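Appendix B. Chain record.
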Amino acid sequence: MIREVRQVWRTGRRKDIFRPLPSPKGRLKLNAKEKMVDLELVTDTEQVKEEKFDANSYLNMELLRFTTAGSVDDGKSTLIGRLLYDSKSIFEDQYEAIRASSEKHGDQYVNLALLTDGLKAEREQGITIDVAYRYFSTPKRKFIIADTPGHIQYTRNMVTGASTANLAIILIDARKGVIEQTRRHSIIASLLGIPHIAVCINKMDMVDYSQEVFDKIVEDYRIFATRLKTRDIHFIPVSALLGDNIVHRSEKMKWYEGVTLLYLLETIHIASDMNHIDLRFPVQYVIRPYSDKFHDYRGYAGRIASGVIRPGDKITVLPSGFTSKVKQVELDGKVLQEAFAPMSVTVLLEDDIDISRGDMLVRENNLPRQSQDIEAMVCWMSDKPLQVNGKYALKHTTRDVRAVIKEIKYKLDINSLHRITENPSIGMNDIGRISLRTTKPLCCDAYTKNRDTGSFILIDEATNITVGACMVID
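Structure tokens predicted for this chain:
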């Protein structure tokens, strides 16, 4: 009987080997040599290296979410494929599948972009259309990758993938330099509050690994970046196709003294990106077991949006304004001395207060703004234009209300940051500033201060389709 199966680092031949924890009569080894996976009994007399697997250390490992952006054919999907391949994070059957697909399409090399471009239309055209998510880990960190499209008509897809990212990888074709799409994606990344940007100058092999080309692009981008809110920007010369400076340092660019892309992803500091000052705890669910053992149990479950919560803290419940003290904080049946964002916990209070889903626990001396009149930047995602006086459903954290659009302040020219104020209309993929009024007050912060409580979505009530992603303006 297999008690536990886990994945370990692959061998140099890229064979995926799985081994379970020790069992009394030997160990079962899962070997993926063939496409059909078969089990093989390994006795204790065989010399098989045992590695202890600590599930808690893996679950507690820091998670980095990052997105890729760039113009068409800059090599975003190829870079992700190369990153997964060189970090030994793909299975052999996956590699064999994309190798066979590459041969079928007549490619002269294994097209690693096929690891993320899974739609038929994407593979036919060699482009990215929808957001593709991939997950992998190294001994230092866990990662979630959002491969986003580069076409202008898919701006909404990029916003979706980048909305939760800690870091954005902006790809630049070394032959073309900084172009309109580069500026567009950098501005969107800055607008979404992504705190870190890694600018990868790709296809260095096609410019003979020239340091002059790299330095010129870095200078041009730095001049442009003075208009961005993001200040932590890194530059790396790479060749996604050949693997230069992706996981391993390139022998062909010895003039580059910086780090590789994977090293940057593993070591970049993100702990301070989270707001640990302003306590914001949106209630998702009220736990009432109704059993003899937990007869008086009343817990409020949710994900901490920001801040730190401890037993004994004085809190205020919004929007009611009732106050109480934190009696206990629980996680998976264990009592915690403190909890912080982005942990999902259950909070018990000393007083029985009328609290339901959509309410928010905050500190009594640190309150968010409560208002029915909201001004926000919106990225429009529907083929139907935004309608002034139009009514939409609004979802903010765990709170659901209805809203009416009062005014379109301006539409933003994303390439020049020029504000179009004369008869502005917001259509699909447009970004603009709007004012709206909600049926109930929202407890919100400015998006620049808190990305969770400073954002919300608009939903078409007739179709239940998300039509707008919004960021609250202070």
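Further analysis of this model is presented in Appendix C.
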